[in-house]
């Protein structure tokens, strides 16, 4: 069935909405990556079996949705109409959920979220502190939508922004609206989206391309994955609106092959949109045509850079080129091309539907709207959070994230992916927006937020990112290829106790050169992790070099393990776990660690329950 | 974007080290600067080939105040009113560092040694390797653009990037024309240690073992002299 | 286009894949991905065949095949073990997990066991950061890995 007018679209939407009884019981199981790994498939399977065996099949809806964000507590199950939020659900719990909640309308106490501070049980998602300070504009609908169902998307008002644009707004007016909203690229650079669209629209040429960058390569960030997996139509709708504004008829989604579910769900969504006439020739009978195809990435971080991505869309290695002539003039196949990332596209329908005025009221002076962050690392509530721009790091880490596990101290937050910077605890009251993050030597990036505690070595972190970027550098320009190689060499020396004080100015010179002379964004920002750690944690570098010590106890060459004779009970756990056979001892006798054989992997330290293994 | 509407032949005016100069609108900064006789070092550039922007030695400083930045002049177009500085401290410091990184990788290249002496680079702070190739890609472009053979190309990426034939085997496309060797800036006149034609500084010609490091007045200007390094172990 | 009945042994398996993408140059990466899914690696003859059909130099196909991490020119093992080395996994100790897998399989990352059973690779973030350290065995995500848990996930080789 093809829809060829707004009226037909509205009718279809009403039909879907009318067919849905708001009081009808519905169970949603989070099918995001996090919950998948903790076993949501088994839970969904058991639910299906359970509902069938009790002959509830036709009376209770069951859907597997996209990521709910609270990955720490997965698998997550929500039961409607009450909206009861169950966490860490196992297949064994399914029977009880059906009996208690579906049949008797009562919550299963033990599966509810328990506030770690007050001990209080929370019934609804909205009662949980993790969700309370969030503003889930782009990922919020993930909980309500089955990503494989276009009806679900239409029921929540999907494609109404597209209809509004095609039948009520000139392309210039759409661009103006996006410009007024203040939306900036969510992929890293923070370039104003409306301005980018405008220059692509104004560039000479009949063939123009619209590209969605879903090559989310930042380690520690997975919001694009969650949006594409959970709500692919919102991205498609944004792209179609953008294409209309720009005057493009061909679009690409470039998505990581490591995200098979995102690829599958996007492909399904494209197929469904085509069938309904929301994509392809003569969209909604408006005369405007636009189609989208999917290209899978080959696994290269540098392809997040627009010119590298376009090279790989042309079937070439992902090597960037100079951008003195912008991609909006000469991009893919040398045609004007407009590239935005997943989250940026997903914001577009929202702005069109609710207006730029509404949107621009959210956020700070220069950064409007919300941003999704993935809160990971040494944090209690790991997960995806969407917050208004301008919220402080403290609110994100402590109010939403629930603080640091084990009562340890926060040391730093790393934002902006591998080319971002480490922000020390002292700057925790920093409001998060593009400018403020850049001022302290970091950046927004795509929104990874990696929390580090006192057991994280900042020199090791700098070394880690440098080695990551060294592997991911395309190798074309000398500053990035050779500069990162030498930075890595020096940082490895320092972490292995061969550092010299005169290395520090060399690090600074190399960093300066990387920033000044590299060809693309990967190189120009590559020194951020090193510079920010050297800037805020210089004493740790000095401790490694001058005292030959790693204060956080991470760098293996600089630490040693021993067993405290007083505390060792001879339980044998360390001996059993030691991979190199370095620990010996009789049962119930003090064990001994042979430092010659010890590889300093730290397994004994982590596994000892009596605090008898000492690291120094 | 005023230059786009400019009719063919009309010149673009820009500021070159403070002087008002004119250039052809289609030309790159590098071409325009060299037209005025200024010396800009390059390794990956050749007039007959597509500019590549990889060696970054040709960086110049453009703009002023907060918008001051370095750009690769070989791929940057001339623009009306652009302020260009070819030899500012920042430019020179950057070129020197880039060259230092290249020499540390390929200590035996005469071309690099010559450039080092021009830029007064006298010391290498990094452990020398003993590579031959600086990955400038001139040979790749030569093979493709001038010889239409496309027999060689880049493989791998990052620190593992190298230039090769498909599957590192003799290529059917290769006509053994030698153009790649002809254009290579790094391997030409590689210091052989001995031989009047190829030696870098003459310091080592009559010595045994061949090593110039014992000569304080070695002409390659390196301290210690790197021209005869054969293996990384030699310099430890 | 070449006639179907003239294709070589490799061609007969590879041609349908190329045809699916209309032999477009821009689809090179997708084509190689599908070929790799078919063979578990990229055979040389297949790459040469693709280059011919797409009318691109072999060296370009080779460049792409060696540039992207997803591709391998050597046959892989029957089981794929990926250890995630992303940042979130790194700060939670993925290095120790990797080393334990390397010890257990007696191969280094990037290698394949002599019996062709396991290939061990590292990956820079799979977007499952909440579960780190993550190991992916074939398609299955294993969360909160520790060196102690490693032996349980590998059959003794």
TrEMBL record, chain A:
Keywords: 4Fe-4S, Iron, Iron-sulfur, Metal-binding, Oxidoreductase, Ubiquinone. The keyword Metal-binding applies. It comes from the Archaea. GO terms for molecular function: 4 iron, 4 sulfur cluster binding; FMN binding; metal ion binding; NADH dehydrogenase (ubiquinone) activity; oxidoreductase activity. SMART domains: NADH_4Fe-4S (SM00928). Its EC number is 1.6.5.3. Residues 559-588, 589-616 form the 4Fe-4S ferredoxin-type domain. Belongs to the complex I 51 kDa subunit family. This is NADH:ubiquinone oxidoreductase, NADH-binding (51 kD) subunit. It comes from Candidatus Methanoperedens nitratireducens. The lineage of its organism: Archaea, Methanobacteriati, Methanobacteriota, Stenosarchaea group, Methanomicrobia.
UniProtKB/TrEMBL annotation, chain B:
InterPro entries: 2Fe-2S_ferredoxin-like_sf, 2Fe-2S_ferredoxin-type, 4Fe4S_Fe-S-bd, 4Fe4S_Fe_S_CS, NADH_UbQ_OxRdtase_75kDa_su_CS. Residues 122-153, 165-194 form the 4Fe-4S ferredoxin-type domain. GO terms for cellular component: membrane. Residues 10-90 form the 2Fe-2S ferredoxin-type domain. GO terms for molecular function: iron-sulfur cluster binding; NADH dehydrogenase (ubiquinone) activity; oxidoreductase activity. One of its GO terms (biological process) is ATP synthesis coupled electron transport. PROSITE patterns: 2FE2S_FER_2, 4FE4S_FER_1, 4FE4S_FER_2, COMPLEX1_75K_1. Pfam families: Fer2_4, Fer4_7. This is Uncharacterized protein. It comes from Candidatus Methanoperedens nitratireducens.
UniProtKB/TrEMBL annotation, chain C:
The keyword Iron-sulfur applies. Signal peptide: none annotated. GO terms for molecular function: 2 iron, 2 sulfur cluster binding; metal ion binding; oxidoreductase activity. InterPro entries: NADP_DH_HndA-like, NuoE-like, NuoE_dom, NuoE_N, Thioredoxin-like_sf. Pfam families: 2Fe-2S_thioredx (PF01257). Keywords: 2Fe-2S, Iron, Iron-sulfur, Metal-binding, Oxidoreductase, Ubiquinone. CDD domains: TRX_Fd_NuoE. Its EC number is 1.6.5.3. Its cofactor is [2Fe-2S] cluster. It is an enzyme of class 1 (oxidoreductase). Belongs to the complex I 24 kDa subunit family. This is NADH:ubiquinone oxidoreductase 24 kD subunit. The lineage of its organism: Archaea, Methanobacteriati, Methanobacteriota, Stenosarchaea group, Methanomicrobia.
